[in-house]
Amino acid sequence: MSHNLDLQTLKRQFFEHLEIEKGRSLKTIENYERYLARFLAFAKVSDPHAITDDMVREFRLWLNRQPSGVKSGGHAETLKKKTQNYYLIALRSFLKYLRKRGIESLSPERIDLAKVAERDLDLISASDLERLLAAPNGSDLKSLRDKAILELFFSTGLRLSELCSLPRDLDIEKDEFSVRGKGEKVRVVFLSEHARAAIQAYFARRTDMDDALFVRVETKMSEGHGVSLRLTPRSIERIVKYYATKAGISKKVTPHVIRHLFATDLLQNGADIRSVQMMLGHSNIATTQIYTHITDKQLRDVHKKFHGKK
């Protein structure tokens, strides 16, 4: 195997590997391209052997001083630690790929991520959620569609991209269906009675022939002939925001917030974390563990039962 390939060639082959062997989305690859390009522009090297500890340390210092474009109290803020870590994750992944190919470079284990504050979950209360789900209350096609979207999000914990790509021929009689998530991984999600009823009511009013589960309803079908009416992720985000405002919820509500609510609802009602991990489609249980500190009902019950007793 030839080891005299330059970094630009290896970088291109790395992205091809991510797309073909790893099944990463084009969006992920696009982000990695941006992160790695910034590192290589900073490093100004063409040989993988030339990547060193010192170079990475200097890059980290440089990143830490970059403006984020956000101003706070009249001062420009620098890049958040979490954002800085995205660059390091991309670089580490690239170095792992080089090692796999037997190409000598810096060991990926040499790169530690910056410590970040524990993630806060932007949750809404149970009563807010109830009002949100009840907000689309009309019998017209748009209201029925939007009701189905909100109920499906809460019943399944689907990611926005997963919900957008659902087909019309979804078999909802079985109360469960398979979905292809991040990294092309397939998992099973489950329908509540409310979600199934909402989808059935929406189906009953549809007159178009589009293959997508959720479609635009404002467009006349004649205008949409030959063009997919599938709702975009941005459209669905706007729908969720609209009903949150209508329900009088002051906090920001997004599809991802509903996904958080799905997870915390399961854990608060006694579901084990491994099952929740599988239902969310998390490849790493550490990602699921962000929910445990606010959902450990058992610990709260123990505290109530045993604390302060005389």
Please give a structural write-up.
The protein is mainly alpha-helical and 310 residues long. It has two domains: 7-110, DNA polymerase, domain 1, CATH 1.10.150; 126-301, hpI Integrase, Chain A (Orthogonal Bundle). It contains 14 helices and four strands. It has helices at residues 7-20, 26-43, 53-64, 81-100, 126-134, 141-156, 160-164, 193-205, 233-246, 255-268, 273-280, 285-288, 292-295, 297-306, and strands at 67-72, 75-78, 176-180, 186-190. The chain has a two-stranded antiparallel ribbon. The longest helix is centred in the first third of the chain and has 20 residues, at 81-100. It is globular, with a radius of gyration of 24 Å. The model has no long low-confidence stretch (mean pLDDT 87).
Write the layout of secondary structure elements.
Layout: H1 7-20, H2 26-43, H3 53-64, E1 67-72, E2 75-78, H4 81-100, H5 126-134, H6 141-156, H7 160-164, E3 176-180, E4 186-190, H8 193-205, H9 233-246, H10 255-268, H11 273-280, H12 285-288, H13 292-295, H14 297-306
Antiparallel strand pairs: 1-2, 3-4
Helix pairs in contact: 1-2, 2-4, 6-8, 6-10
